[in-house]
Amino acid sequence: GTLPLGPWLMLEDQPPETIGLFEDEWNHHDTLDECTKLLHNTEIETQPWKTGLRADWHEYAQPPRTAAAFLRAVARRVLKPRAGMRYRPHPDPLQERYFFKLLLECIEEGSITTADLRAAIRRQHVRRDAFACLASLAE
Q1: Average pLDDT of 39-64?
Q2: Which of 2, 25, 95, 135 has a C-alpha 20 to 30 A away from that of 33?
Q3: How far, CA to CA in Å, does 112 sit from each of 53, 108, 125?
Q4: Taking a C-beta distance cutoff of 8 angstroms, is the pair 47, 87 a contact?
């Protein structure tokens, strides 16, 4: 069966005085620095593992979080056809490197195989140059 996630997810069973706010570094939105505890890549079109792939996101799956994201959504819808769009590089190269460092760790420990990665690349879930990105970490 399925678990009833509503009460757990909404903390309905917890006394209000035991619930507090997390510091921002526990959900850093596209911010990777010495304080980051949990990185959240919020801008769909700059996800580090998808750079160069054809756009496959749904235009209005989530409301834009920033004015810049809203303007990009309008531009995508009005000024250019979505069919030719591709994922762009993340504006912070350290986040791309961080992702591939974690991926390399998963491959080295065996939780992800190179066959798994090749299959993800074929399905266009991961960018085509993933193996080159992994190799660049050794340089």
Answers
A1: 80
A2: 135
A3: 21, 8, 14
A4: yes
Residue range 72-104, pLDDT digits in tens: 776 666 655 556 789 999 999 999 999 999 999
- Distance (Å, rounded) from C-alpha 139 to C-alpha 136? 5
d(CA 44, CA 56): 10
- pTM of the complete model beyond 0.90: no
Give the chain's radius of gyration (CA, Å): 18
Residue labelled with tokens 């961080």: 98
Torsion angles phi and psi, residue 87, rounded to 5: -65, 140
Tell me the C-alpha distance between 115 and 112, whole Å: 8
- List the beta strands (DSSP E) in 1-139: 28-29, 39-40
Q: Which residue has the tokens 């580090």?
A: 48
DSSP state of 43: -
